[in-house]
Amino acid sequence: MFLLVLIIAGKLAYDHFFPSDDPDLPASQTGGGTYHTNKIFSTSPYESVRMVYAQIAQNRPDLACGSFDIPVQQKFAEDLGYPDCRHAVLAVKAQVTDVNGYAESIPSSVSEPPASDTVTIDSCRFVVRGGPALGVFTAQRVEKGQWLITAHQPGPRTCPLPSTPASPTTSSSR
Q1: Which portions of the sequence form the region Disordered (predicted)?
Q2: Is position 113 within any domain?
Q3: Within a domain: residue 9?
């Protein structure tokens, strides 16, 4: 019994004088779980918007809303006519008729290099299939080369059909 008490006291004394280098503190105190310290967002502005469509299609309001800067979550909801981002995502999901098509409305193959640290992406620049268009997004490059959606503007729920290109005209030079 004495040996057991001695071992426990020794362990407590050791922990007191030589604390762990990695304390088990909550993420709110250590900064864990934020884009400032961890890579949690896409490294492509187009992919960041595609993920909003994909997460709505998959009925994941937490992840869809998490793609936006916190104040923009409310702006996105108001632009779509809902009281908050969660309600907006759930209501849009109810309108999705083609989960896969909607999730890929912004193709993952878009790889235009961004010309600056802020990129505006209009949903109607792409063919939105299986659900409503979500408007115009502004993505901004943040820490660790990630893209966070920092602004939103409303747009048409149904995008106009792309106009057919005018027939090429030929001009002769003499």
Answers
A1: 153-174
A2: yes
A3: no
- Look up residue 84 and give its two tokens: 């908050």
Q: Which residue range(s) make up the domain with 67? A: 45-153
pLDDT on residue 39: 60
Take residue 163 and report the two structure tokens written for it.
């106009």
Residue 75, judged by CB atoms within 10 A of its CB (0-12, 13-18, 19+), counts as middle
pLDDT at 170 (0 to 100):
40
Q: Tell which wins on pLDDT, 146 or 57.
A: 57
Q: Taking the model in full, what pTM does it have?
A: 0.71
What's the structural domain count of the chain?
1
In a domain, 34, yes or no: no
- HSE (side-chain half, CA atoms, 13 Å) at 80: 27
pLDDT tens-digit series, residues 31-42: 555 655 556 678
Q: Is residue 170 part of a domain?
A: no
